[in-house]
């Protein structure tokens, strides 16, 4: 490709990361263009070295390069997202903004660390040293939805991943997601993803990883 002229030849390396997780909150929260300026990052040396290493691996075509480069791409993506989170202004709302808030970030960590625990708003507020109303208001204002609705959506996302990656029964996965009956789980799953859990499992099994 020729564009302009007079400068040195530029090498452009392209790649992609994909996810089969439905309604992924990270992807939805990111802007359409996310730029990681290497010179402005604290980890500038590591980023530049990683990119040069990836370019050499791709050019050499050595055995085992693909899984190695996949892991490296994930690390670079995580660094880019971390840099973006640090740039989020305090007044901004959304999933990533929650991690920038010390209280909501801790609440989200608790919810994800103990996914099988039947959390309540009162218990979370107590863990964080806030009143129920103060915690619920702060969570909803920053995350854009009440804490228990957020928790329910994340457990359903986890259930969707289990449907694809495990051989557990639908009823068992629904129970792990906090539903006492398979029927209740199926209703919630279809409401969230627009498709029944069994149909989701069949469709996802037929698609490539």
UniProtKB/TrEMBL annotation:
Keyword vocabulary terms for this entry: DNA-binding, Transcription, Transcription regulation
Positions of the HTH araC/xylS-type domain: 105-203
Pfam families per the UniProt record, alphabetical: Cupin_6 (PF12852), HTH_18 (PF12833)
Top-level taxon: Bacteria
Gene3D superfamilies assigned: Homeodomain-like
Protein name as annotated: AraC family transcriptional regulator
């Amino acid at each position: 490709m020729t564009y302009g002229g007079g400068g040195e030849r530029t090498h452009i390396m392209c790649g992609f990361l994909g996810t089969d997780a439905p309604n992924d909150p990270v992807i939805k929260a990111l802007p359409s263009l996310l730029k990681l300026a290497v010179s402005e990052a604290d980890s500038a040396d590591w980023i530049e070295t990683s990119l040069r290493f990836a370019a050499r691996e791709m050019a050499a075509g050595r055995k085992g390069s693909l899984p190695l480069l996949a892991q490296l791409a994930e690390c670079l993506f995580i660094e880019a997202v971390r840099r973006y989170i640090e740039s989020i202004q305090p007044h901004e709302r959304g999933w990533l903004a929650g991690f920038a808030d010390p209280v909501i970030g801790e609440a989200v960590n608790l919810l994800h660390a103990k996914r099988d625990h039947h959390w309540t708003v009162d218990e979370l507020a107590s863990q964080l040293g806030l009143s129920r109303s103060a915690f619920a208001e702060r969570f909803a204002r920053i995350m854009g939805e009440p804490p228990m609705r957020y928790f329910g959506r994340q457990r359903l996302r986890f259930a969707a991943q289990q449907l694809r990656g495990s051989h557990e029964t639908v009823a068992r996965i629904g129970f792990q997601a906090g539903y006492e009956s398979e029927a209740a789980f199926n209703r919630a799953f279809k409401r969230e993803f627009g498709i029944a859990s069994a149909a989701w499992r069949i469709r996802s099994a037929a698609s490539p990883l």
